[in-house]
Amino acid sequence: MRRALFALLALALPAVAAAAGGDLVRVDRVVAVVDEDPILASDLERVIRLGLVERGAEESDAALERRALDRLIEDRLRQHE
Known about the structure:
Layout: H1 2-19, E1 30-34, E2 37-40, H2 41-49, H3 61-79
Antiparallel strand pairs: 1-2
């Protein structure tokens, strides 16, 4: 019985994967919350992409993201005043 169930699962998994179409959908994630107002990863990426926070000489990606996040948090705090 176990062997039959395992065989059935082994055959069904590729079918399920094929039915999903193989298209991956990126789900946005919350990187911070200010007064119940979420800051999304896409917000952070937008600030960096638009150059609203300039990269310092030899600054790491993590440091740039941290500065961009700090800026977004400060902006949200000002909005909530």
